[in-house]
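Contributing new records

If you add data, match the layout below exactly. Sequence lines come first and carry their own label; structure lines follow with theirs. Keep one chain per record. Anything else will be rejected by the validation script.
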Amino acid sequence: MSQGSMAIMILLVSFLVMIFLRFPIAYAVALSSLFCLLYQGLPLTTICQQMVKGISSFSLMAVPFFITMGVLMGSGGISEKLIALANACVGWMTGGMAMVNIVASYFFGGISGSASADTASLGSILIPMMVDQGYDDDFSTAVTITSSCEGLLVPPSHNMVIYAMSAGGISVGSLFLAGYLPGALLAVSLMIGSYIISKKRHYPKGDKFSLKNLGKQFLVSFWALAAVIIVVVGVVGGWFTATESAAIAVIYSLIVSVFIYKGLDWKGVWKVLDQCVDTLSIVLILISTSSIFGYCLTTLHVPDLAAKAIIGLTDNPYILALLLNLILLLLGCIMDMAPIILIATPILLPIATSIGINPIQFGIMMILNCGIGLLTPPVGAVLFIGSAVGKVKMERVVKATLPFYLCMIAVLLLLTFVPEISMLLPNLFN
């Protein structure tokens, strides 16, 4: 075995062993990279250089701002107003509260950009409300965690910024536009699944539809929804960069939460900022350590080797597309979202482009794959949060989620083989 092959073995095997031993992902990435560099006899100063290089990116500055914006809006009394708006839209349907949950996640996802934040914030309100109205607790939790993945697709999503950086600086604005229709398609598919189950279990309807009430709730929620408009329109229109739009959105969110909705006082703002620092430290450590791992992969030509190995299995583009999805789904079972994006993008994106998949379309596919991974054991963070918020055993939640997995897989296949779903808006506005 050559020195390069042995270095690859050390890098990947040590990483997988530490993952299965439940090491924190940042430690697993950093230590496996350290072992690989030591074996090759490279200077350890490379670690520091690559860590600094990994987070020295202007576009990456948008990530802390988007996270801060989401936490400010999520803590500022926005959840209740978005739930009321969703109820005015779809609460009249059979299984109305399930529909409200799904639509509210679409609205809230456009503000927080985080499935975990969506589950924790909306779930703590909606799951008890659904149970009180006669819905099963496992079904209520399953609807909450699956609909939370809409927030990963609906802009502004900080994961899209991370993908854009990992993919070599593709347009963040185009990614933002590409997420709207897939997010809506995911919402519709989950609503269809919820409707079928609700009909079968005789779940109740809500109040009758009222156009007056819808208008009233829209006016109340307008200030929250405007944050998304500021970001997306500003970036797509070329008025400012993603980083600048995120900074403006933070100031806007602070004003709305403190002065308009009055869900936060200044003491609460400091607590929110403290929470943001905790989240950001985790994200930035992951990005910096993943940069070392990516450096090792690149110098050892792993992306090229992986591409040749996968393409060597078949030259059928449809089977290759399915293989890419399968790889991402399997990674989602053992890794969190940000590391998958950072590590897998340089390896899998060249394969995707070689079979005619646009990098923007692949980004949407990757984010949905990772979203499904957040709901799958053993590492599904959103699955654990939903189980804790709903006070339901994880095994019951997984069983109740099975029909919704099918809905999400159906959407994933549509996004894979019908590129127009992802590319319609980017092509229209660019």
